[in-house]
Structures are given as structure tokens and as C-alpha cells.
Amino acid sequence: MTQTPLSPRKPDAREKLLASALRLIRTKGYTATTVDDLCKDAGVTKGAFFHHFRSKDDLAVASARHWSQITSALFAAAPYHLPQDPLDRVLGYLDFRKDLVRGEVAEYTCHVGTMVQDVHLSAPEIRDACHDSIFGHAQTLEADMEAAANDRGITLPGGAASLALHTQAVLQGAFVLAKASGDAEIVRDSIDHLIRYIRQIYQSPHVEGGDMS
Amino acid sequence: MTQTPLSPRKPDAREKLLASALRLIRTKGYTATTVDDLCKDAGVTKGAFFHHFRSKDDLAVASARHWSQITSALFAAAPYHLPQDPLDRVLGYLDFRKDLVRGEVAEYTCHVGTMVQDVHLSAPEIRDACHDSIFGHAQTLEADMEAAANDRGITLPGGAASLALHTQAVLQGAFVLAKASGDAEIVRDSIDHLIRYIRQIYQSPHVEGGDMS
DNA sequence: ATGATAATACCGACTAGTTGGTATGTTGTA
DNA sequence: TACAACATACCAACTAGTCGGTATTATCAT
């Protein structure tokens, strides 16, 4: 009946476990999320878990890569890439990040940012997978930041890569404060500060289009 | 020597356990740090642990308050309070934070920032203790930020409290990226971005036309 | 088509070790 | 003797991971 012609197998349990991993680990943290928790949430058995993953750590690495795929697809399809001016694309990205801050804390915080705190010393493989996810995402901002600087004949303080990483630091840190206070508004406020900083760097006081309402 | 007259004895094990908690939890995370780990590191037995703390969560709350005391003493004694200009005190604080970023990741990252990610939903008491530590520290910056704004006749975008929290967000987020990459330089770079932002806020003579209320 | 063969996907009881926590001491001091 | 400050032995629940087994599907010679 429902048979995908391209993939001969349908590893249903694997996808359900990865989806549960994103939800549970973001809520409880990696160490506090047990294999049984994941199996119960995904509606599969332990046999299925260890059929698809050699260990809990193996699932963590896979979940980090899965997170990268989910998020890169989300951002690639987002409308902030449309403006001609690369600076507007950068500012559009930050507005888009603000729009994503809705609902419960676990719904808008970062899976790999949460996980890497738990395992950055004990599990280097997971840490590296988280690193690749965060830093890979930051790289997608570099080109626009660099192009906007070239358009205006300015040099970015610290370089485009440093500014791109700074945006991720602001987001990750704002998530920490949101977890401490339960208040999502803190995230939006910090992004607003970042938007002002970037506007001032490029010395572009005007606003294109109807954002920031 | 130093004997408190109010307490009949000095609870040596309690202080050793709290010191171990700061070191171990910053390294491994709260959930991954076991009671046995703490006892072994502190050189005490489990009996001593549960004599001084009702539960592991009780120690976590105590460790968050202990962290607040340690850090508030550190910052209160720091030389950045000396300048006459409150803006110089704010910038001196950020330079001081940069100087603290030395050695291993666990040596300069934030105990309560690490812990709150682990427990923000499962243990509200610990979360609140972490919240008080972070937001209380942020409050110590507010007065100088506000005074510096009044001296210059400007209005801070979002208010002094928001700017103070933003500094903490930048620091916490930079710690996350440092854990992911093992590179302390990332923290100093993000603080440099924050210093530029704050300098620009206070240097701009005009009222920012704009976004916030 | 059909049946044999083999590979994958999944099940759930089981285990060896770990977990936070307790019960019952012992020791030093006032 | 009274009490705080420990120490030792222990436990029930939980942990990641194992293992023999089954159901479903793919491959392929006939």
C-alpha cells in the first residue's frame, strides 16, 4: 500500500526515535533522557532502539545531524533570502529568528545547544556533531554579512565569521536566560539588541519593508 | 583560628561538597554528576552528604546560592568599580569578564547557567535559585548603565535592565559555543562585539529613530 | 508465479551495574 | 549525657545494553 518506491525499507522506528529525541532532549536534557523514555515516547521497543542505534550516544550523534537537516531546510525555505540588499537578508534572518520564539521553551530552543552542554567533555563525538550543527548554521550567514560590508566599503570588526558566531552566541545565551526565567520575551529583547548592533555596524538607519512590529 | 561562635563546629564536609559541586557540575552537568561522584571528589562519605543535604536537589539549590556568594564577592572586590565615569565601570566590567576567560572550559563557564539547562522543567526550585543568581548579578550592572545614560542625556533602548540581561545572554551563549568548540577565543570575541555595541549606544548623541516604544 | 533463502525490522524479557536515598551505627566535643 | 558530625552497610528502583526469537520484505533460481 503505502510503499516508497525510492527506499526499499521503511525504518519507521528510527524516524520516530529521532523525532522523540529532539523533543525530549530539548525538554529534559540529554543525560536525564533515558532510552526507555525515548522508546516509550516513540512508541517502539528497546529492541528497535538498539537495532537502529549502537548506543544512546550513537542516537545523540544521529539526532544532532537530524537537527541540522531539519533546521537547514527550515531556514533555506524561509523568505528572508529574497531582498536584494544582503544587509536586509541578515536583518530578515534576525526577524525570522524572533518570529520563531513562540510557545513553550522547549519548542523554540536549540537541540544541539542544549545537548552540547551535557556532553562536551564526556562524549567528543556528540560534541563534534553539535559543533558542526551550530557552526555550520553560522556559516550560512557569513556570505551575506561579508557582501553587505563590501557593498558599503566597510570592514567588519573581527570579520564576518566572528559576527556570525556572535549572533549564535546571543541566541544560545538568550535561550539559557529564557530557561531560567520561563520568559520568552528575553530572547526577543536580546535579538533586538543584536539588531541594533548590526544596524550600527553597517550604519544603515533605514528600515526596508514592514518588519519589527 | 577562624571559628564561628554561632555554630558549635565547622561543617567541613558541607563546604567541601559545595566546592566539589561547583567543579563537577560545571564539568559534567548536573544530571551526569552523581552523589557518589561528589562524595568521592570531596573526600567524604554518603552519610555526610545526606547529613548536610536532604537530597541531591537540595545540594543543587545550595550550590546555586553558594555560587552567588562566591561570584558576588569576586565581582565586588574587582577593580572595575573605581572609575568616576559609570560607563567606564561598565566597560571595565566587560574587560574583567574577558580576563576571567582563561584555562579549561569548566574553569571560566557559569555554574548556574550550566545547571539551569538540565533542570529548568524538572526541578523548579533549582531553576529559581539559578534564576536568582543570574538575574541578581545582572542587576548589579543596571545602576551603572542607567547612570551612564543619564550623564549623557540618552535613553537606553529597551531600558537598563534589558541591556544588563543582554550582557548575560552574550556571556552564557558564548560559553555554549566555547563548549562546542573548545575554543575560549570565541568568548572574548563575543565580549568584544558587546563592548562595541555598548560603546556605540553611549556615543550616539542622537536619539535612535526607531523600533522600540 | 512460486517457493527457498536471506536480510532487515522489530519484539520484550533479561542482566549487570548504577542510582539516589536510608538505617544504623561511631566519634568527638560541650 | 546529649547532640552534631560524620561513617558503613545496605536497598529498591532504575540504567544502558543484550539476547533469542518472530514478522515482514527483498532476491532469485526455477
From TrEMBL, chains A, B:
Xref: PROSITE patterns: HTH_TETR_1, HTH_TETR_2
Keyword Methyltransferase: no
Single annotated GO MF: DNA binding
A Pfam family annotated for this UniProt entry: TetR_N
Top-level taxonomic group: Bacteria
Keyword Transcription: yes
DNA-binding region of this protein: 34-53
Gene3D superfamilies, A to Z: Tetracycline Repressor, domain 2
Domain HTH tetR-type: 11-71
Keywords associated with the record: DNA-binding, Transcription, Transcription regulation
Coiled-coil intervals, chain numbering: none
Name of this protein: Transcriptional regulator, TetR family
Species the sequence originates in: Roseibium suaedae
